[in-house]
Amino acid sequence: MTTTETVHDRIGTARDELTTGQLLAVFAFVAALTFALLFLQEPLAHDSMHNFRHAVGVTCH
């Protein structure tokens, strides 16, 4: 019987294989993304991000 890999297994593997610097880089990336999603919803920032998405060809709506 084969076992399937779970999220818990993947987190354990990441803890064992990633260095402290890599974990800090991941944490910093997640923090920056969270900041952008939470605080850059001001109209000016939202409009500029919206226009950028259209400029690179992403359909927003």
Task: Please explain how this structure is put together.
This protein has helices spanning 7-17, 20-39, 43-55. The chain has 61 residues and is mostly helical. It has one domain. The longest helix is centred in the middle third of the chain and has 20 residues, at 20-39. The protein is elongated, with a radius of gyration of 18 Å. The termini are far apart. The mean pLDDT is 82.
Topology:
Blueprint: H1 7-17, H2 20-39, H3 43-55
Transmembrane segments: 20-40
Organism: Natrinema altunense (strain JCM 12890 / CGMCC 1.3731 / AJ2)
InterPro entries: CbtB_put
Terminal CA distance reads: 46 Å
Shape: elongated
**What is the count of structural domains?**
1
Please state the average pLDDT score: 82
Task: Return the string of H and E elements.
Answer: HHH
The major sheet is characterized as:
none
- Number of helical segments? 3
Helix content: over 70%
Question: Strand percentage, roughly?
Answer: under 5%
Our Rg estimate from Cα atoms comes to 18 Å
Low-pLDDT runs of 5+ residues are none
Overall strand count = 0
Q: Which structural class do the helices and strands define? A: mainly alpha
